[in-house]
Records
---
Amino acid sequence: MVKDAVMVMNVICGNCGTALLAGEATCRRCGSTTYAVVQPRRKSRWAAAALAALVPGLGHIYLGHYPKGLLYLAGASGLTFLGLDLDLTVIGAAVGVPMELGALGLWAHGVWDAYNTARRMEVEGF
């Protein structure tokens, strides 16, 4: 994906609210020279961990890390589905139970990672 201009983070026109491009002194939409710096909303690390505990990957999606959240969701869901499906046979139970345990491990790691990602975002000021 090619972007035609680089956006300055959190800088908007003070008159109409349009995001300003790098180096722009006036708004391309309304011509105003006033601008405002907008502080992004801080994300709670506890909310991220709680959401990740409810649904694997949801905490990362809450934090804006969509690809990572979708990978956690797909990984935990896939391991759980395949593990439960394999439990239906005697031989499959030997393979299915470790897959289910892997899904639990991935879920627990997702909760831990969502909490630490939110904490890191707080420290770095995101």
---
Amino acid sequence: MDVKYERAVHNELIQVTCAEDSGQYFLITPKLLPNLTYHENVTTLIINNGDYLPETRDKKGNATNYGDLAAHLAAYRKLLRKS
């Protein structure tokens, strides 16, 4: 599936699964597109697999990859508090 349709399918899944009368839904995927839209009722778990996951940071101290999961979760929680 190309990026356009992956994003469209993801958005449709979010709308359907976050409706008040919908059940629980699990999406297991080897990758996700960046900057996807999520509903406030969505819980995202990222599982990294490997012997070494670097904690790479830019000059401002921001995490630059998923190796630093704690920093990404903190940034996500901060973003949720703003909205």
---
Amino acid sequence: MAFQPPFGARSKEKDGVVTIALSGELDMATAPILTDNLAPFEGNGVSTIVLDLQDLTFIDSSGLLAFLEARRRAMSNGHRLVMSGASSAAQRLFELTETQFLLDEQVIPDGLVRFFRDWVRRTDRTIG
């Protein structure tokens, strides 16, 4: 069995900007950890949350959904959510799933969050 790096999220705040450096695998088991790490900053008046993806080694559909929902919350709360440092593999995933707008702060297309939420639910039932 190959070693799987644990998921990690380290945050630092300076001048109204929070940077959260993600590492390891963002999947069905760890996406709630990302959401929990975002929660304290989403309503506290920060202007920008930067997600540093440089050390993220894997993202599945649950991870994409977590990013989409975080972007939606950012838009609702009036702060920016910026993603930086995506590997070429992660960039390709965003392209294939037509979610590359997450990397350049575009508006989320209507229905996309709903599509991923439904897909994750169907997958959960298949696995579970």
